[in-house]
Design brief:
The protein is an alpha+beta fold. The protein has a 3-stranded antiparallel beta sheet. Helix 3 crosses helix 4. The longest helix is centred in the first third of the chain and has 14 residues. The N and C termini lie far apart (about 50 Å).
């Protein structure tokens, strides 16, 4: 079902955009996928549920991309906010190849 939805994306201003119908369909699929996920997560647990590292979770919290709350000196993230973050960034280009270091010495 996700393949049918992703085939109809439109490109606008360098980013993919979804219609409300496509976003709702993808949200429903993500809610089914994350049905066993706890309602409230710490950043470490959120990094295990999402395909990003814990450092990137903290960076997303600091930049305001990932909504969180402070509780007893730490951050907590709701499952709904995590799903919103995934929906907003699911079609971003992969930057892994830009972050890798070249292990060969060119000298």
């Amino acid at each position: 079902q996700l393949q049918k939805v992703s085939a109809s994306y439109r490109r606008q201003k360098g980013r993919f955009t979804m219609t409300n119908e496509e976003r709702n369909a993808k949200r429903k699929e993500l809610e089914r996928f994350y049905s066993k996920c706890p309602v409230v997560l710490r950043p470490k647990a959120a990094s295990r549920w999402m395909p990003i590292s814990i450092n990137y979770v903290y960076a997303a919290i600091q930049s305001g991309e990932l909504r969180s709350f402070t509780y007893k000196g730490g951050y907590i993230i709701s499952k709904e906010d995590m799903i919103d973050y995934i929906l907003d960034h699911c079609e971003d280009p992969c930057t892994y190849h830009l972050l890798r270091r070249n292990k060969r010495d060119d000298g």
